[in-house]
Amino acid sequence: MTEAPPRTAGPGPAATGPRLVGTSVPRKEDLALLTGTARFIDDIRLPGMVHATILRSTVAHARVRSIDTAPARAVPGVLDVLAGAELVGKVKPWGDLMQDLLVGDHFPFATDKVLYEGQELAAVVAGTRYQALDGCEAVAVDLEELPAVVDPEQALRPDAPLVQERIVYEFGEGNVFDRYRVRVGDFAAAERDAAVVVRQRFTTNKQAGAALDPHGCVASHDPFTGVLTLWSSTQSVYMVRDVLADVLQIPRTKVRVMVPEVGAGFGSKAQMFGHEVIAALFSMRLGRPVKLVLRRDEIFRAGTTRNSQVRYAELAMAADGEITGYRDYVVHNTGAMSVWGNQVVHIGTNVGMLPYPIPNVHVDSDIVHTTTAPGGPLRGFGIPQTVWAKEQLVDMAARELGLDPLAVRERNVVDPATFPYRTPMGQVIDSTSIKQCLTACAEAIDWAAKRAAPVPHEGLGLAVSMKYTSCRHPSLDTDLSAVRLRLETDGTVTIYSSDVSHGQSHATMLSQIVADGLGVGIEKVTLAPPDSMTAPFGLGTYASRGAAVLGTACRLATERLRDKVLAIAAHVLEVGPGDLDTGNDRVFVKGLPDSGIYLEILAATAAYRTHQLPPDFEPTLETVATYDTPTEREASDGSGNLSVTYSGAAHAAHVRVDPETGRVTVVDYAMVHDTGTVINPLVVEGQHQGGFLMGMGMALSEDYVYDENGHQLNASFKDYLAVTAPEVPELTRMSEIPAPSTTIPGGQKGAGESGTGPVPAAIGNAVLDATGIRFTALPITPQRMLTALREKERRGVETLRYPDDMPDFTGPRCPDEWPSPTAAEADDFDFDFDFDLDPEEGA
Amino acid sequence: MQQVTLTVNGREVTAEIDERTLLLEFVREVAGFTGAHNGCLEARCGCCAIEVDGEITKSCNVLAVQVDGAEVTTVEGLAPQRLAPVEHVTTQSLAGMYAPLEAVRTRAEDLHPLQEAFHRCHALQCGFCTPGMLMVLKGHLEENPEPTRDGVRHAIAGNLCRCTGYQHIVDAAMEAAEVMRGDAPVPADG
What we know:
The structure holds two protein chains of two kinds.
Chain A (H helix, E strand, L loop, with lengths): L29 H6 L14 E7 L5 E7 L1 H4 L4 E6 L12 H4 L13 E2 L5 E7 L2 H10 L1 E6 L6 H4 L20 E9 L2 H7 L2 E8 L12 E6 L6 E5 L4 H12 L6 E4 L15 H13 L3 E4 L2 H7 L2 E2 L1 E10 L5 E11 L7 H12 L7 E9 L6 E2 L6 H19 L3 H8 L8 E2 L5 E2 L4 H12 L1 H6 L5 E12 L10 E8 L5 E4 L9 H13 L6 E3 L18 H28 L6 E4 L2 E4 L7 E2 H10 L13 E7 L16 E13 L6 E11 L6 H20 L32 E4 L22 H13 L1 E3 L6 H14 L4 E3 L41
Parallel strand pairs in A: 1-12, 10-11, 13-17, 15-16, 22-23, 29-30, 31-32
Antiparallel strand pairs in A: 1-5, 2-4, 2-6, 3-5, 7-16, 8-14, 9-10, 9-12, 14-15, 18-19, 20-28, 21-22, 21-27, 24-25, 25-26, 28-29
Helix pairs in contact in A: 10-11, 11-19, 15-16, 18-19
Chain B lengths: L1 E7 L2 E7 L5 H8 L18 E4 L2 E4 L12 E3 L18 H4 L17 H9 L8 H14 L5 H7 L11 H15 L9
Parallel strand pairs in B: 1-5
Antiparallel strand pairs in B: 1-2, 3-4, 3-5
């Protein structure tokens, strides 16, 4: 159903041959992945390689009395053991760059205190993995357990256990790591003039990226040259290289980061981790290659998770349905420590206000530490959390005013008369079709007809969002990617980039751009594996920036390469460059596509017959281009245009709720997106479907479940309910209404995360329609549903907000004023081990 | 230590191994076939699925010593006749003869119908779960030549994929089933 995007002016229109941008070119990546020859991190074996394993804390919060590694050294096969004490003063803490801190708060091991379950205590390297595990068991650990703090609101209390003791933050002692605020317009005036103000406390869950390919690395230090080579399963070559070199205090040129195939990340591999430092240290101490690949339970406990939030959210609406204001107090749980966590609430809130140009926005956020797994980026970067609250409030206000939720959204989504349009929040909308997407989405789910004939236990829900394409993070003032291209002397092309493809199809997508721009056959274009020794500096693959930012760098490099090729051809043919065109692997005089000079001849000339080159032509055909987006830094009032362009997503869910089991089934789901000019429609469709999957997990099943001691009860795919195939509806009601970006030369917008943003809210709104229960907590598990249905029946009410029913909530001003929930014991956050979603699951 | 012999993708492999060695580890580290992947080591993600004496098995949940003497097929054994596609892209005379898409299309006759359908339908993104998906679906389609979409979904309920939302995987399985039945010609185009 994906519509073909309009063709936009590319670099040098190829007069002959089909244009590949806009077509579903089969992927260049597939052959190795389909046949088992692709090499992921755990597939790498080097001569003399040994194996490391990390001993992790089994308690969440404790003072370290002693960690004795001596017994481990006596275990057969053990070569070396490390713990935190001996590294203090030798290894630099990290986390300062991304968090804008003076001193980093991350260290390879816990030294004085354990801050979360799974934190590194010691590590062992041995001849085999089993020997390393035996060594870990022999390490003698003496910890004095301290009270844990799992709940982010409890972490704010004056008597709460202090998580980070050594670091004095701007806001003094306590667990508030950072504060964030938005002051746009005048919410108090909007509140005064509104026909209705709806208010609700919402909570969101801690979701795992759970990329199936484990985090891991192989470090190999050459004791003679001092070069440390690190193969790592990461999303960002240079973030790992630069931070690792800084931590080890060695020159950047002595650290080489290479990336094998990466089996996905979703944001969870967008930073350097302790295991990368540990493997590097072992290799430096032993002079041998060291492999360290994490186990699944380690990734659950010590990887990064979606930041959970508590939101006291309010939305003001005029009688005609106009959204006039939004106010929110957000308690943002960033875990015990987090490289990216505080950025999530900034961007998730700023961009999360879209697609509504709300004139009055007032947000306060406390970003707090708890003794839980580190928060971090995860598909959607804070936007699904914001949209979960805001899009449910839109429905609540519409219902209070007796308006159709669809009509209210159609009235409010950004639909300016002229572009670019700057919203009150500061976003510059260069193009959008979000209104058309919304209408088309409602038609696709058959909104009007189905609502006119309601079916018991079934319901419909809508949600819309706009997602950033790239991002200038508040503490990281850059948004760039780069590409180097080389026309090889046989007419093939090599692309160098440090933005790691881990499912996004960069090899295919970039080759499509190069093939169109240079007139070279796509089969002749190759993407080099990411390698810091050869690739130009780029930030990495995250924030849906691949197609737009990396793609634009590739387009610019292609244009420069084409100019050089034309210059040589013009000299040889004695015509002007403007008289020439490219296509079919050739440069030819316009109008004569069957003649011309093959690119390989020109490339060989540029390298091997340099006296035939035009005067002053710099030999060889290699070009570099860097694209830094024209985005803004966040202003002090929280406003700003943080993203180069914005993709639109309108989603509609049709759910059925089984009153016997409490299970929510998504029976149908419609998604209409604006991804601008689509480079490869099938790839973009796949991105949206995968984005939906992650949103569905957030909505219905995935969460970190902790006991009161901060022990995670479900650090395994046995208990952490990742969404399986039978639970997912057929995702065929999908279409694109492209509004090509006018900022990005090729018109692309980000595709990776727009499928996720609206999903929990759309399902939440549909659940209300089906049951009369407004869920305020995620995920909507069968157990919670059953409790809510019983509570609704007990009270004999038509509608119920669950678990937090707060009719007296008039807006929080400080923690002491927060109302207490009045619904049934909030909550049953217990994990139901007996519940089996599907008897055939895990067959 | 114990001696174990397995036939992996037609090749007999004998080794002295630690009794704790998992079948997955034997296949990957002893026999050298790294197509089967370790995603969880608790038989939940399905990335390690291989065929053991005709049965599709999660190889992380079996000790190698338990299946001594078995015949094992991994994803590498799905297309044993496959040769690396040779692309003539270096000579002037041949360069013009190639249609732009010709050489990126994998050659259907070399691949298992499931591999071909996965490629055509974009049923893989990062590709980490793909070998397990292919093996489980091979078993399902051989037992169910006329599968239903729902049946396919339940067949892969023990295989996680975090990238695709499963839609294109189900599409690919249905298309591959047609080819395997002989109902459909091997599609000529992507």
